Amino acid sequence: MKKETAIFAGGCFWCMVKPFDTQPGIISVISGYTGGHVPNPTYEQVCTGTTGHTEAVKITYDADVFSYKQLVEIYWQVADPTDATGQFQDRGDSYRPVIYYSNEEQKEIAESEKKALVESGQFDEPIVTQILPAKEFYVAEDYHQDFYKKNPERFEMEEKGGRGDFIKKHSK
Predict the structure, then answer these.
(1) Of these residues, 6, 7, 9, 12, which one is catalytic?
(2) Does the N terminus or the C terminus of the chain have fewer Cβ atoms within 10 A?
């Protein structure tokens, strides 16, 4: 097994878990916070927009089964790459779309996939998703983990807040 990690931010982490968690070779998908300047932030602190963190998911996967490129391709289907100020009904800096890379190979793949998305003409607006080096990842509180499994009715409501229609429109 070739165990690797990937970190993506694309709005509320509640809705970012399931699309990755259900793929073959995925070991875990953890909700958390990254990209900011406050050590070990709480959900309440991140929500203030003053910590610099995004809500993100840290995906541990078997790279022999599922590639980083495939993860990035899923990311483009579940996060709106044209909205720098949030995602769907989630607004604010902590919901901005970011691909965090942990090595040069991930950076090259993310940049190449972003370039391909721009050239595809799939979106009328500019692609604004940032590609940044990974910083410390802080695991979110327990009640945020596996939200789609623990609270299926609430998850469905959250997903219908625009993300579900976006996924249907942009799925391959």
Answers:
(1) 12
(2) C
